[in-house]
Amino acid sequence: MEPLLQKLYKDTVRDALKTQLELGNVHQVPKLEKIVLNCSVGSQGERKQAIEDAVNEVTLITGQKPVVTLSKKAIANFKLRQGEPVGVKVTLRGTRMYDFLMRLVKTAIPRIRDFRGVAPKAFDGRGNYTLGINDQSIFPEIELDKVKRTLGFDITFVTSTNNDDHARELLRALGMPFRGKTAVNKAGESVEAAA
Q: How far apart are CA 84 and CA 190, in angstroms?
């Protein structure tokens, strides 16, 4: 079954972005290619147990088992040897990507305390957006009484465009709550107001 957000993109968002960004071809319209979730537990005391907990919780959040990342070089000050596990990462594509984005935007982000929107300038210059999450407990899949340690992670949204403004409009159309003034147009959609 096709995810609701993917259906929304194909039916309405793609055509709206084509006219809004004044693109000549539908294949020039930016699209979401993948979402990469990266969690590091490098400074934790019991590194082996921390990696195990991170694998379990990232699996619960994303629905896909992550890959354990290893250190590339030894750093004596951090008591770190080369080849030791330091974190986990998972790459989401297709239906799992759209399902995760829907849960992130509709249920997880609104649960952040004192939330005023995500930073609209956290783009890398190539159309990719990275969002930092400080606590995994904002996701409803995580049971608060079973949380042993706080895990923070980065969520990177990789788009098919190299233009940050086009990528920002794509993520805004998919429901990403960027910080800033917004107004509602006649159709009932929220649009950025002139400052």
A: 47
pLDDT at 107 over 80: yes
Do 137 and 144 form a contact (C-beta atoms < 8 A)? yes
pTM: 0.82
* Residues comprising the chain, all counted: 195
Q: How far apart are CA 173 and CA 79, in angstroms?
A: 45
Contacts of 74 (CB under 8 A, 6+ apart): 80, 81, 82
- Positive or negative torsion for Cα 122, 127, 132, 137: positive
The least confident of 24-28, 95-99, 146-150, 191-195 is 191-195
User: Do residues 76 and 123 touch, judged by C-beta distance below 8 A?
Assistant: no
* CA gap 99, 64 in Å, rounded: 12
- Residue-wise pLDDT for 125-138, tens only, equals 888 999 888 887 78
Rounded CA-CA distance 134/146 in Å is: 17
CA pair distance 63, 94, nearest whole angstrom: 13
| Residue 145: pLDDT over 80 | no
